[in-house]
Amino acid sequence: MPTALVTGAAGFVGRHFTRALQQAGYDVTAFDINPRSLPGVRLLDARAFFAANTERYDLVVHLAAVVGGRAKIEGEPLSLAVDLEIDAGLFQWALRTRPKRVVYYSSSAAYPVTLQDGHPPNTLAEPDIRFDYPLGGPDLSYGLAKLVGEQLAGYAEAEGIRVHVFRPFSGYGEDQALDYPFPSFADRARRRDDPFTIWGDGTQVRDWIHISDVVAATLAAVDQDVPGPVNLCTGRPTSFNDLAHMFADAAGYSPDLKHILDAPKGVAYRVGDPGKMLTFYTPKISLEEGIDRSLKANPWPS
């Protein structure tokens, strides 16, 4: 039986990966610093694991990170510096234990924010990040940590470790915490909030992709040995105002929109170029279906 390691296994993405790998026949080792009493997920800090472990895994899906949505990215940037320590520990451990494959999740936040001002609307393609000139301009400390992680992945590849790097855009799903906009919008629409609150002026644009497509695309790339980096996205631009209207329409009401202009809002236009991903995987869940699923689901407890 092939073996897999999932770090950050109790988080939103980690839960889905752990389940998918178990269903695929892997013997999964899963841990998280906050396991939330999930069956099979051990209470363990990734840094302690990487310092002491000597096992060799067939597949490593590395998701352990300090997360918390836009409020944490803008409000607690130093807390995200821990991600640098976690990722450094991962790659040092990988050089010692030589896993067959490592999945490293970067982020669309690694792209230069100068390409995301919306003038003109620009889709972000993998070559827009280059490592042959000084790094600069990612989205605050979170984006910087992921950018450095990508560079560490490149060093590990040069040492013979197969690392698949992915840049997910705005992933969402029915069990995502309310720290993120998509489940928050679903919650407001489910309650039929009027007015319907939105951080910022609502014109900021994102590229939404369902978690099931994130997981399936990742595993397809690993199975087909697709070299990274790979954007995980749909290429469909949707503003926060439009998303709010879509949720309200699906919930059957017409609220006023209330904009919280002094709240964290992020970059103006973050949409990915899915061209590379589409060579091996096509997303299955449309935004409309994702909205319908989210409205019908019980939200994940905080």
Automatic annotation (TrEMBL):
Gene3D superfamilies for the chain: NAD(P)-binding Rossmann-like Domain, UDP-galactose 4-epimerase, domain 1
- Regions crossing the membrane: none
- Residues annotated as domain NAD-dependent epimerase/dehydratase: 4-232
- Per its UniProt entry, which superkingdom is the organism in? Bacteria
What is the name listed in the Swiss-Prot or TrEMBL entry for this protein?
Answer: NAD-dependent epimerase/dehydratase family protein
